[in-house]
Amino acid sequence: MRIAFVVNSYPPRLGGLESHIYHLSVSLAQLGHRVFVLTISDEPGHRTEEQVDVRTDRAHLPIADVISFPSAGATRRIARFLAREHIDIVSVHTRFFPMSFVGVRAAHRAGLPVIHTEHGSGFVAASSPVIAAASRVVDVTMGRYVLRHADRVLGVSEQAADFASRLGGVHADVFYNAITPPCSRPEPIADRHRHLVFVGRMVPGKGWDTFIEAVARLSAEGVEVTGELLGAGADLEAARALIVDRNLADRLCAPGRVSAQEVRSRLAGATLVNPTVLSEGFQTTLLEALAERGRVVTFTVPGARLLAEQGHPVVITKERNVESLVDSLRSYLREPAPLAQPDLIDAWTWPVRAREYARIASTLLSEKKAARNAGSDASSRG
Fold first, then answer.
1. What are the C-alpha distances in Å from 268 to residues 147, 195, 236, 272?
2. Residue-range domains of the chain with CATH
3. CB 154 within 8 A of CB 116
4. Secondary structure of residue 156 in the 3-state scheme
5. 86 backbone dihedrals φ, ψ, rounded to 5°
6. pTM as predicted
7. pLDDT of residue 125
8. Is 56's pLDDT higher than 80?
């Protein structure tokens, strides 16, 4: 198949969405499919990376380092590209991004089917009432259009699929997130369950402040723990200041952004603490911690219950607040579960997920072909 991803962002920009698109596109290319990525950024260009043809147009009008817009006429240009390159199917991701809207419209102009993958499990959470209201308007207009005009809708968790179904009034299937398989190590992974790791953007709602407060309370009780916060963002300096203010500089550090490989290394044998209250998709950090034989203590988030039911060492707090987090950590540290078993994570890796996506795309193309043939037969009989 010849597959075109039409997306708002792609590495080197970092984030869960970008990681999903990158690994899915590369894994599909490794299966022998011809894969293109059409994206936007402030550094336009054209490159081939791990067998994926990446074409970047200039981004305009960035909003809060989250959303930017393509150049005028993008729909027409992309539709011509899809036809010229004989693309079979178009892939778009997250309903509110302008490139998802453009991708759906361009695909329809070119007469091509679209698979939309939803990564959010609810409306955008924002502290500003203005931003919250504006994002809701985008969701019920442009977002709803994307969901209703895609030929197949997927969600990266049960919650994401349910949200997409409710917002768009369409059927949505679950297509879980995934990770790269863990690398083989020359030595066994040490059990470091008392080393607590936060991974995520340093922004309101992600829980970096809840994480620091939980460590402070455990330390005040005499519980021996160390920890680190991995991630960059607007609140990074505030996090560092809070660490000093709570006299935790000897226990906690916040190095900022580190590479994906370094995140995996720092999670090895440790405990991922995930106190986010945002509307998350399926966070790959949960899988990465388990792949590196770590454990997870988390607020209720998509996928956590499923992983726990499958036998992974995942503890879910009763409530989404610091008191419940401290209670769960205290109990967990007294009697930690055995280290995660890496063989249980095989089903959650990108080679498996890419084959699943290819089957979905192939089935959709077959359905479209059958529908066209049925229409031709009906016309000839008429």
1. 38, 10, 23, 10
2. 2-178+350-381 (3.40.50.2000), 195-343 (3.40.50.2000)
3. yes
4. coil
5. 55, 45
6. 0.81
7. 67
8. yes
